[in-house]
Structures are given as structure tokens and as C-alpha cells.
Prior knowledge:
Blueprint: E1 17-19, H1 29-37, E2 41-45, H2 61-79, E3 84-90, H3 96-105, E4 110-114, H4 121-124, E5 132-137, H5 140-154, E6 161-164, E7 171-172, H6 188-203, E8 209-212, H7 218-226, E9 231-234, H8 236-239, H9 248-256, E10 262-266, E11 272-276, H10 279-285, H11 303-307, H12 313-321, H13 345-353
Parallel strand pairs: 1-9, 2-3, 3-4, 4-5, 5-6, 6-8, 8-9
Antiparallel strand pairs: 7-11, 10-11
Helix pairs in contact: 1-2, 2-3
Bound molecules: flavin mononucleotide.
Amino acid sequence: MVYPTLRIGKHQPRYPLVQGGMGVKISGPRLAGAVAKAGGVGTIATVGLAVDSPHYKGRNYFDANVLALKDALAEARAAAPEGVLAVNAMVALTDYEMHIRAACEGGTDVIISGAGLPLKLPEYARDFPDVALVPIVSSTKAASLIIRRWEKQYGRMPDGLVVETPLHAGGHLGATKLEQVTDPALALEVVVPELSAFLKDEVGLDIPVIAAGGIWDRADMERAFAYGASGVQMGTRFACTVEGDASERFKQAFIDAKAEDVVIIKSPVGIPGRALKTPFVAKYLEGDVTSKPCIANCLAHCSYRNDRSAFCIAQALVDAYQGDFENGLFFCGDNVTKCTRLETVDGIMGELFGA
Ligand SMILES: Cc1cc2nc3c(=O)[nH]c(=O)nc-3n(C[C@H](O)[C@H](O)[C@H](O)COP(=O)(O)O)c2cc1C
């Protein structure tokens, strides 16, 4: 198979594949290190790393996150000294700037950032010019806004763009309204060629466009390359691996999931998210918004904190990571139905890129 070379700033993985960042602690150092070692970009999600880290003493969540992120990067780097490592940081976090600075100081190669527009990312990473900066977008309009702002304010351009389609992806979706989740104009086969043409013809920028959402096997990947992607990002499939950092019960929930278990919810961040209909999520969808207490004011905008119209998402994601099916929020892509067994990172990479 001939596949594109993925070059993100100064970094070039062996294969054009990025493992998507998955919080809370679904993609930690073990998964990221294994993927980077196997030749892809291994990504640590920064959100909530403090939880169950030795640094967290109950009142120092933000400082503990910084220390836990640096530990995680060191652990992943030890597993893949020559590999390409990324950090995924959500713009929506209160301590977003601290995550970016810690990621740079901790030695990440790439920062991938979404759940909001990362308009200030170049400012926070400015002392580390070798760290490649990759916004996540769902439309050409969002990419254009980021590019214009970065150019005007910082004289810097993105080193790549992840296009994540709300039609299939797991986690928070790049849509402000629930209807947009099914908008065919946001399909990868529409946005990837449109964005590639925009970058080439209107901006004159030669950076990789990485397709994310609903990519599972080699046929999906080749389709993405055929419509112009230079790489793919995959989340759900990597969550259900031996190396995945979540508990075994989290992974079993993926294996057990059926199509009717996958739902769209309005997240406390204010945007839609795709997740499993656990008992907790089913109650939320029916209007029952009981929540465990807020962990640490982790979100800049939080509809649990504001008016109690949602729940503490950090707590619900921690419950999922620990495998509490009753109370957890299990984010997943709609291809979670294809998880039928626990895989290994090497097994997936071999199937995707082997002879
Ligand atoms: C459990 C889970 C958690 C996720 N958490 C994050 C996150 O913290 N930040 C983010 O940018 N994307 C997050 N995502 C999205 C993934 O990084 C990835 O882009 C997406 O899952 C790709 O679609 P796929 O799952 O169909 O492969 C998450 C996805 C899943 C399944």
C-alpha cells in the first residue's frame, strides 16, 4: 500500500496515523507510548490526569495536573524514545494555559487542541518553537478563523489540522447545535477536500489535514487518503486495547455496546457529545440531572456550576475510566459497535499498515 507521509512541523511518524487524545485517562502514557513505539503519533489527553495520581492531595487539582502530565510524558517517552508524542488539551478547561506550558516543558512533540477554538495557543507555546501546533476543527470556516487570527496576532501558522466530523466521532463534537451533529456538510469527504483546497489556493499553506471520526479499518483509512487527507486520527478503536489506560470494565462496556446504546447528549461544556447510554446518561436524557459534587471547577464554562442544568463531567468521566457503568459518562464514537474484543496496539497497526 502506498500511503502519504505525515509530517507535522518537524516531526514525522513512521505511519500517517494519530491516536486521538481521550480523556479522562482513557489515553494516558501507556497507550500513547505504545502507539508512538509502533510508529504512529501517541497522544496523551491532559484532562483529569491529576485524579488518582500521587500528586493530588484533594485541594491542589490544577498543580497536580501539571505534575501528572509531566510524569505521563516522561513515562511515554521512556517507552518510545524515538517516537512522536502528542498532548491533547481542551480549550474549554480553566487551566488550559497551564496544560500547554506543562506539555511543552515536559517534552511533547505536538499539541493537538480542540473543544473550542485554540485562538491563544501560539502565545502559550511561544517559547517552544519546535512543538508543532495542531487545532481540531469540524469546518473550513473554523480553520479559516484560527489561521487568520494566528497570522495577524502571532505571525504563526498551524502545523497541521485535524478535521473531526461530528457525524461519527467520540467525545465532544465540533457543533454548537444538536442538529449539526447529523449535518452532511460536515462529513469528512466534504470538509477534507474543501479545507485542502482552501489551504492551497487561498492561504498558500502546505500542512497536513488529518481526518478523524468513524475511521476503523484499512478501507476507511484509504478512503480518507483518497479524498486528500495526509493522515487519520482514530480514537474509539484504540480505547479498547490491552494498552489502553482505562479499566477493564470500561473496555468491556465498549465490547458490549450495540448501535442503540450510542446517544448524543448536551455536555456541561455546552456542546454535544457522543456517548454510551449508561443508566446515568439515560436518566440525564430524561431530565434527571442529579450529580456528584464538582471536583475542581475544571471548566471555563460549566452548566453544572452555572445553573445545575447538567452534571459534573469530570466526576462522570472519572467514574467511566474506573469502570462504573451505572454512574459513568463513557464517550465513544459510533463505531464502538465494531469493538468485539480487546485488541493490541501492534495488532491494529499491523492490520492497518502491514503487507
Ligand atoms: C473515550 C473518548 C474520549 C475522548 N476524549 C477526547 C478529549 O479529551 N479531547 C479531544 O480532543 N477529543 C477526545 N475524543 C475524540 C478522539 O480524540 C478522536 O478524535 C475521535 O474519537 C475520533 O473518532 P473515532 O472514535 O470514531 O475514531 C475522545 C474520544 C473518545 C472515544
